[in-house]
Fold this protein.
Amino acid sequence: MPHPETAAPPAPEPPPEAVAPLMRSLAVLRELAAGGGRQAVGDLVRGTGLARSTVDRVLSTLTRLGHVRIEGRDAVLAPRLLELGNAYLAACELPDRLGPLADRLADELDESVSLAVPDGDGVRFVHQATRRRAMSLAFRIGDLLPAERGAPGALFADDWAAADWERWRLRRAADPADAGFPAVPPRPPGAADDRSGDFVARVTAARSDGWSLDDQLIEPGLVAVAVPVRDASGRTVCALSVVSHTSRLSADALREAVLPRLRETVGAMEHALRAPAPAAEDAHGPAQASWMRASKQELGPEFVESMARGLITLTAFGAGRAALGLSAVAEATGLARATARRALITLEHLGYVATDGKLFRLTPKVLELGFAHLSGLTLPAIAQPHLAALVERVHDSASMAVLSGDDIQYVARVPTVRIMSVNITLGTRFPAYPTSMGRVLLAGLPEAERSARLALADLAPLTRHTVTDPERLAGLLARVRAEGYALVDEELEEGLRSLAVPVHDRDGHVVAAVNVSTHAGRCPADEARAAILPALRETAEAIEADLRVAGRYARIPAL
C-alpha cells in the first residue's frame, strides 16, 4: 500500500449531467481492451463491477454498433471499433501529414520510426513505420508508455507545469510497477528505477540538446533517439523517434548516425504542419439518428440509445473537424443540442474530450479504446468471423487466399462437416491458373502484369478439364474481371467445384480472394452459383467494410 501522503488522489465525481450508460459502456470497452480484446462475459462483470444484466445490455448495444461481437461466452472487440480511434487520428492530422515523411525516413535508415504524442503523464504512439526483424520495435499505434521510459517523454515533460509534475509523482508513487501501462515490458530484476532524479535530469538535458535518448529504458537492447516536432506557434505537438537495437548500434552510435537526418525530417514535418487544413469530412448525422431510432425499435431495452449517442459523438470529429462547437457536434451526429452537450460533458469528465469552453477536441486517450489491439489485426483475423458466418449460411467450406508468386496461398479457412469435404490446411499452396481464387487474384492485377505472368506460366493440365490454352485463359480472366467472380469446375481436382470473389482494400486494390468449395456432383453449376454467389459477395463486402476502417491508419498484413 502506498503511503497516505503519496497515494493517488481519488477520481473526481462525475458531473450531474454525465450520461451513466455511456460511462458504463466505456468501462466495458476499456476492460475488454485491457484483456487483449477478448474476455468471457462473466469476467467483464467481475472486472467492471457492473451487474450482469447491465453488462448484457451494454454488449448488446456495442454489438449493434459493430464495436463488439459475441462468440460463445466471449465478447470480442470488432474492427469497426477502430472508427473511434480513427476519428482522433484524422482530427489531429499527424499521421496524414507526417506519416509519409516518417515512412520515408524508415526506408532510408532501415530502422523503425515512430510518431508519439503526449497523453497525460504518458506517451502514446500515433504512427509506426517498423522494420520486420527478429529484434525490432513491437509497440503498436495506441500503445501507452510512461513518460520516463522512452525518448519522447523527456521532450514532452519539458512543457509540464508544476501541477503536471505533482500528478506524475503521485502516479508513480501509487503505481510502482507500471501497472497502468500494460504495453510496457516489466523491468528486469535489478534494473535501475528511473522515476525521479534521473528523469528530471534527462528532461533538462533534452531542453538543452534539442533531442532525447533512450538507452534501454523500455527494455534491454532497445535504444532510440527522439526530436520534437513543433507547430507554427512553437508548441511541441509530437516527437519523431528512430528506434534500433544494441545488436546493431549503441545508443550513442544511433544518435550520431541518425540525428542529422532526423532534424532534416523534422524540418520537413514542421513545414507540412503549416499547410492549409484539409477539407472537412462529411458528417452523417441524420442517417445516424435514424439508424439509432430504428435499432431502439427493433431491440427495445437491449439497445441503450443514450450509450450509442455518446459513442457516436466521438465520430463527429475527423479530418478538417479537429475542433468543433456544440452546435457543430449536434449537427454532425443528428443529436439534439442538449443530448450532444451531455455526451460531451461525460466524455470530457472521462478524459476523451478536452475543451476551452467553446470548442471541443478529442484527446489521445480515445486510442485506449481497443485501438492498439485492433491495429495489430491481420487480414486473416479480420476475415475469419465473416467466413464462419458464411459457412453457417451455405453449409460448405469457405477460405481466403492471397497471391504468392504463381501460386495462391491459403491464409484463412473455415471447414464444414460433411462426409465428402475438401481437406485443406492454412499455408497450402496451389497453382493460381486452375483455381477460382487464383483467377480472381490474377484478374485483379494490372493488365500488363497479368499478361506477363500468363506468358511465363507453365499451364500444365491437372485434370482433363484444366484450361491450358493461354488465349482461352486470358479470355476467362477478362470475364472474371468484368463479372467480379470466378467459377471453376473440376480443373484443380476431379469432382471439386469452387466459386470465388475478390476482396478489395480501402484503395480498391484486390488483396485477397474468398471462396466456397463444394462437390461438383451435388448440383448443376448454375444452381450452385445462384445459391452461393450472393452470400459470397455479401461476405466479401463485410470483410472490405472492416478493412476500410482497420486500414485507414494501420497496416494490415496478409499473413
User: Anything to note?
Assistant: Residues 1-8 have pLDDT under 50 and may be disordered. Residues 20-85+280-375 form a domain with the Arc Repressor Mutant, subunit A fold (CATH 1.10.10.10). Residues 148 and 199 are 6 Å apart (CA to CA). The chain has three domains: 20-85+280-375, 94-273, 379-550.
